Amino acid sequence: MRRKLAAGNWKMNGTRASLDELRLLAGAHPAACDMLICPPATLIAAAAGVAGAGPVLIGGQDCHAAASGAHTGDISAAQLADAGASHVILGHSERRADHGEGDAQVRAKAEAARAAGLTAIVCVGETEAERDAGATLAVIGRQLAGSVPDGATGTDTVIAYEPVWAIGSGRTPTLAQIAEVHDFLRASLRTRFGAAADGIRLLYGGSVKPANAAEIFAVSNVDGALVGGASLRAADFGQIVAALSAA
Ligand code: PEP
Questions:
Q1: Which atom of ligand 1 is nearest to the CA of 94?
Q2: What are the b/e assignments for 75-84, b being 16+ CB within 10 Å?
Q3: What is the pLDDT of residues 127-183, one digit of tens each?
């Protein structure tokens, strides 16, 4: 069975003082689910030191598709791994929007992550206009096919469904809408990858908070969450982890 995953994305938030929140999480009793915090790149090595061999895993928020070279300001997957990361978020809608990342680029990054031994959390999700136009599954199917490398398994790949309009907005899809997308993702992965697809975890992301976590985690094919704002404070993220552990 798939082990549930609660993943936190700190985005461009946090300084060394923020590691106190991580200390609180790392000192908590081990949860019945995996816990992952993806701090900004400046904090990855220090965060990995704080997490140690405890229950919290550390991840990056992006990597370059190349292994090394003349790419000023970028970070390779191997560098993330060297700093102590085990996972990397790829194709987040903020990177797709702010940096013009497309599916082919996300896929190349996911291949680089796999080569470096990282698990890629590949993000997909529709804009509000695309949902209103009835194009949600078409958009997600296209992103999934284009962004996930051939041969994906549960070891190297996690998929996060993040409706763009739900991120940071306090709005969430209905539970039926989440179920529709997650069931579609599972079926699409099975068609492409066969039995290996059943090991790939599907996270929901977009305004997950302690108050709505339990009902979202009860939805079919939801194996956890990718959490932005509510991952910044251990008290909030800890409640989400507790809800996932109980699901
Ligand atoms: C995210 O950016 O991945 C996210 C889900 O953000 P939030 O939880 O703040 O909506």
A1: 2
A2: bbbbbbbebb
A3: 999 999 999 999 999 999 999 999 999 999 999 999 999 999 999 999 999 999 999
Q: Which of 227, 232, 236, 240 to mutate to test the pocket of ligand 1 (most atoms within 8 A of CB)?
A: 227
Which of the following is catalytic: 64, 92, 101, 111?
92
| Domain count for the chain | 1
Q: What is the distance between the alpha carbons of residues 78 and 24, in angstroms, rounded to a whole number?
A: 28
Interval between CA 37 and ligand 1 midpoint (Å) = 13
Has 162 been annotated as catalytic? Answer: yes
Quote the ligand 1 centre to 205 CA distance (angstroms).
Answer: 6
Q: Please give the residue range of the domain that contains residue 238.
A: 5-246
Q: Are strands 201-205 and 87-90 parallel, antiparallel or unpaired?
A: unpaired
- CA-proximal residue: ligand 1, atom 3 (nearest): 228
pTM reported for the whole predicted model:
0.97
Phi-psi region of 225 (alpha: psi -120 to 50; beta: other; left: phi over 0): beta
Active-site residue flag, 92: yes
CATH for 14: 3.20.20.70
CA of 69 to the centre of ligand 1 (A): 31
CA distance 10 to 128: 23
Q: Which residues contact 29 (CB under 8 A, 6 or more apart)?
A: none
Q: In this predicted model, what pLDDT tens digit does every residue of 72-109 receive, in sequence order?
A: 999 999 999 999 999 999 999 999 999 999 999 999 99
SS3 label, residue 161: strand
